[in-house]
Amino acid sequence: MITEVTIEHFKKFGREEFHLDSSIVLAGPNNSGKTTLLQAISVWNLGVQKWLSERQELSKAKERTGIPITRKDFTAIPLREMNLLWLDRRTAYRKDESPERRSGEHKLIKISLSGRSPSTREEWRLAVGLRYANKEQVYVWLEDGNGNHVVDAPRAAKEMAVVHVPPFSGIGAEETGLNSGYQNMLVGQGKPGDILRNLLLQVYKKREQGEAEPWLSLVRSVRDLFGYQLSDPIYNELTDPFIRVEYGHEEGDTTFDIASAGSGFHQVLMLLSFFHARPASVLLLDEPDAHLHVILQRQVFDTLRSTAREKQCQLLVSTHSEVILQDAAPEQILSFYGSPHRLQVASEKDQVREALKRLSSLDLLSAESG
Predict the structure, then answer these.
(1) Tens digit of pLDDT for each residue in 186-197?
(2) 157 with 201, same domain?
(3) Could you tell me if 233 and 244 are in contact, meaning their C-beta atoms sit under 8 angstroms apart?
(4) Last-in-domain residue among 278, 306, 322
(5) How far apart are CA 44 and CA 51, in angstroms?
(6) Do 192 and 298 fall within a single domain?
(7) What does residue 126 show for φ and ψ, rounded to 5 degrees?
(8) What does residue 199 show for φ and ψ, rounded to 5 degrees?
(9) How far is CA 279 from each of CA 75, 133, 340, rounded to the nearest angstrom?
(10) In whole angstroms, what is the distance from residue 235 CA to residue 245 CA?
């Protein structure tokens, strides 16, 4: 479990610390840094995985300078240029910006995570550093809690599986089978809807490994939430290049392609599919309440929390939903109004909810007047 995140020079933050728990709700206005925190954890995870995959072939020079990662391989978030990772896109220090730094010296991104092993309760800390090379490439390395470069990572950090689910972006009419690398690229580009059928197929195929429960659980959740019966996915790459997934009303025989359903159904199906297709120890959900009716928001959030508890999964949820805030304890809310901070008492939660109400009203008024 992640207990603390420290971010330096990354996107919106010059330097910021975040203290987390097993279930945390990120609340605040647009462009306040909620998504940036989720993306930072996702970038940290990408950096660790890339480093560990190459550590056996590391030269002494690469241990010092880091391994190169190109924009094409940077699947954590969508980027047109690599300098968009840096605060104000400034990858080097300006004259007189810092008494300790020379003008033109590289400004390094540092994303440091502290955690605790769920089994041994052992505490660990590991940082990922990024240095800008050019618009198409950065260099990445690992550091311990004292800022020293390290080749290996703590066992608990290596075993931690992080899954980032960006906001739903729509679903295509057709979808062919895609390998995991290409799926990750599409998710990093903010297109999780483009792999929805692939995720459903992956959950279904777990039955072949003797794991029938994930698919049965997903089908039950869809039936309980919507009253729909989800059909088994059909895919044969030799005879038909497209994955077919359909649903029907329980009382009827007619089935429809999942693309025919509404956006709320797609949103829930995507969340459940990620949950069951990609078992995670840390699940980052960006606005899972989007497209959902108020009543459904509570039902879906309850389902996600109960499933997370069963799977011992840490849940970080970015939201504008008053319903989700209402159901979260004050200490489970990380507010992005002002400097990011954890709430302590119920009155602070009420203030955040009121702020969200005012923000929503102003947004609606702006949209109508525009």
Answers:
(1) 998 889 999 999
(2) no
(3) yes
(4) 278
(5) 11
(6) no
(7) -150, 135
(8) -65, -45
(9) 19, 34, 29
(10) 9
Q: What is the pLDDT of residues 17-62, one digit of tens each?
A: 999 998 999 998 888 999 999 999 999 999 999 999 988 777 776 7
- One domain, residues 113 and 97: yes
Q: List, in sequence order, every beta strand (DSSP E) within 71-171.
A: 109-116, 123-134, 137-143, 149-150, 162-165
Which whole-number Å values give the CA distances from 54 to 48, 155, 278, in the listed order? 10, 17, 23
Average pLDDT over the chain, rounded to an integer: 89
**Is 168 part of a structural domain of the chain?**
no
Q: What is the pLDDT of residues 144-159, one digit of tens each?
A: 989 999 999 999 999 8
Asked if residue 370 belongs to a domain, the reply is: yes
Tell me the pTM.
0.89
Last residue of a domain, one of 260, 278, 296: 278
Domain count, the chain: 2
> Does residue 97 lie within any of the structural domains?
yes
pLDDT digits (tens, 9 = 90+) for 343-370: 999 999 988 888 877 765 445 344 333 3
Q: Cα separation of 128 and 222, whole Å? A: 39
Residue 188: domain span: 173-278
Half-sphere exposure of 123 (CA within 13 A, CB side): 4
Give mean pLDDT, residues 68-87.
93
CATH code for position 102? 3.40.50.300
Separation of CA 172 from chain center? 21
Residue 29 CA to its chain's centroid (Å): 18
